[in-house]
Design a protein that fits this description.
This protein is mostly beta strands. About 0% of the residues lie in helices and about 40% in strands. The strands form six sheets. Strands 6-7-9-10 form a four-stranded antiparallel β-sheet, with no helix packed on it. Strands 1-3-4 form a three-stranded antiparallel β-sheet, with no helix packed on it.
Length: about 130
């Protein structure tokens, strides 16, 4: 019968020491039909390299993901916002929206005999407190 070569899809690479496999169209007595027969190529997903979430306000688990895998982008401690799922496509790029995060605001502290300018201070921000006049 005829034959064809079988390799890996885009976004996948052949495992080291493997090559494209040759399949033959032959009679399969077990099913009483012709079928393509041969070894499967050993393909590994290609790691993502581009469009990773970044910034101190972002936390993610995207390191090391590869083609067709997903990861989550969320806000780091001290920040608030949305959670997003990103997918590694065969172009080595993470696709999807990145989390939009903003600093949380510290609540005011009411302390006797202390004056301050600490209204709506964002995470990592500073303010001044002094003895009340």
């Amino acid at each position: 019968g005829s034959s064809c070569s079988v390799g890996c899809s885009t976004g996948y690479s052949l495992e080291a020491d493997w090559s494209t496999q040759l399949w033959h169209c032959a009679w399969d007595a077990a099913v009483g039909e012709v079928s393509l027969q041969g070894n499967l190529p050993q393909c590994n997903p290609v790691p993502c390299e581009y469009n990773f979430p970044s910034g101190v306000e972002i936390a993610h688990n995207c390191a090391g993901i590869a083609t067709d895998e997903t990861c989550t982008s969320t806000c780091a401690a001290g920040y608030e916002g949305d959670v997003q799922t990103l997918t590694c496509h065969d172009d080595k790029t993470l696709h999807g929206n990145h989390s939009q995060c903003s600093a949380r605001l510290c609540p005011s502290r009411l302390i006797a005999n202390v004056a301050d300018d600490c209204s709506e201070v964002p995470f990592r921000g500073t303010c001044f407190a002094m003895c009340a006049a």
